[in-house]
Prior knowledge:
Blueprint: E1 8-12, H1 17-28, E2 32-37, H2 40-50, E3 54-58, H3 64-78, E4 83-86, H4 102-130, E5 133-138, H5 151-171, E6 176-183, E7 186-187, H6 189-196, H7 202-211, E8 220-221, H8 222-233, E9 244-247
Helix pairs in contact: 1-8, 3-4, 4-5
Bound molecules: nicotinamide-adenine-dinucleotide.
Amino acid sequence: MGRVEGKTVIITGAASGIGEATARLLVAEGARVVIGDVQRERGAALAAELGSAARFLHCDVTCPEDVQGLVASACDWSGHLDVMFNNAGIVGVTGPVEDISPCEWKVTMDVLLNGVFYGMKYAAAVMKPQGWGSIISTASVAGISGGLGPTAYSAAKHAVIGLTKSMAAEMGGYGVRVNAIAPYAMVTPMVADVYFSDGERLEETRQLLESSSPLKGREGRAEDVAHAALWLASDDSGYTSGLTLTTDAGYTVGARAEPPRHIQRKPID
Ligand SMILES: NC(=O)c1ccc[n+]([C@@H]2O[C@H](COP(=O)([O-])OP(=O)(O)OC[C@H]3O[C@@H](n4cnc5c(N)ncnc54)[C@H](O)[C@@H]3O)[C@@H](O)[C@H]2O)c1
């Protein structure tokens, strides 16, 4: 028995990176997975590779009707929706606040925050009456502290964590759990694009993240987030709701690859 055997799962942004790794893992663990993404070729190729347990639907998370369509597709397939993983994302607008145009701000929020809201809204419409479900959203360590990502990205990810807490409070009475995951920098095309302006340069990204990792000798991987999502999707986390689960090797609590100087012993006379 897989850990999510028989569950029907939607993953947005599943054509690449964290979403792709999660789709692979959840199918291997017995789930049916609806892959939603704006990347038609990659999404369709992944679904074809994963076989009858996966299907791809073009979905732009900034379009409420697209997200609603994903939920309808999952329900048509199996009659229920067990897990909604709101994961699609972009880096969005960067640069100093005075240079960010209102339009760039809105575009960034539309993907990173409104897209998550639509996922929660349409999943809730099915999960509340059915009486169970797990909603997971990808936040970021940039949603826990300022200074760890671009301004709009950080604001949107803070809001995703806020939305997660608020929805967990609203949905508990209906048997639905709502959680978030907050990764530190992981090896994905998004991060390769940030560092090398080329989403294909994954090995160089891996080496860079390994050398700067809070956990010496070990970079963060898309699979690490996939395993966190598997736990939140499965009944193993059955009493966990409202949590923001960090996959950051302790970065947000101060872990760094080099041990802090204050732990060097200095005897007191
Ligand atoms: N990689 C990291 O270091 C890291 C750290 C913290 C949080 N995150 C978050 O993890 C999530 C996944 O990022 P990733 O690193 O796997 O990046 P990625 O670029 O590899 O994957 C993101 C996917 O989202 C899709 N997408 C983008 N806009 C979309 C839209 N409007 N509608 C539907 N799909 C859309 C892309 O096509 C892509 O397939 C994002 O929310 C990101 O903010 C990533």
